[in-house]
Write a structure and sequence with these properties.
By secondary structure, the protein is mainly beta. The chain has 1 helix and 10 strands, in the order αββββββββββ. It has one domain. The strands form 2 sheets. It has a 7-stranded antiparallel β-sheet, with no helix packed on it. The N and C termini lie far apart (about 80 Å).
């Protein structure tokens, strides 16, 4: 009886000791550093506390002294409209973009920058990295909007809402995409 108790105690002690030593030998969890182009989320609400009608998820690249439009982001080519994963925009109800109808849903927001005018593309192929997998046959809507320049330079690509108009800004370039419901 006594020997069975001692045997069980020794086995339990051995189990506990090996378990703790196994955990002690595990390397601490490694996490990557902060992304150079962090992700951001933007919402459009009609009033404080209201459910958002538009949600935009995008990456925010920095200028870092580089020439942006026409060089880093070439004119006349499809751009992911941010950094890393392509920008995604969700409309919670049917909307009009620059006067053209678009159904409620989530879309990738690509753009084609040019000096005076941008083509804004809403594409149904989601979860894509950059514009590398861009498929024009998946375009749901294309609109053209003017671009303008500002005296103030924005170092980090930014989006904001002015009313329900989506405003893009980077370096000295500004683009307004009118949205209505």
């Amino acid at each position: 009886m006594k020997s069975a108790f001692i045997l069980k105690s020794v086995l339990a002690l051995f189990f506990v000791a090996t378990t703790f030593s196994a955990f002690a030998q595990q390397a601490p969890q490694e996490f990557p550093g902060i992304d150079k182009s962090p992700a951001d989320i933007l919402y459009y609400r009609t009033e404080k506390g209201a459910a958002p009608l538009i949600k935009v998820v995008y990456g925010r690249p920095s200028k870092n002294g580089r020439e942006v439009f026409g060089t880093l982001v070439p004119f006349g080519q499809v751009w992911r409209t941010g950094a890393n994963e392509a920008t995604e925009i969700t409309f919670r109800k049917d909307a009009k973009v620059a006067g053209k109808s678009i159904k409620a849903g989530t879309y990738v927001l690509h753009t084609i920058p040019n000096e005076k005018e941008w083509t804004v593309i809403f594409n149904s192929k989601l979860d894509v990295w950059g514009a590398y997998e861009y498929d024009q046959t998946k375009d749901v809507l294309r609109v053209n909007v003017p671009s303008s320049t500002s005296d103030k330079s924005v170092d980090v690509f930014s989006m904001n809402f002015k009313g329900s108009t989506l405003v893009l800004g980077w370096d000295k370039t500004r683009v307004e995409i009118p949205i209505s419901f």
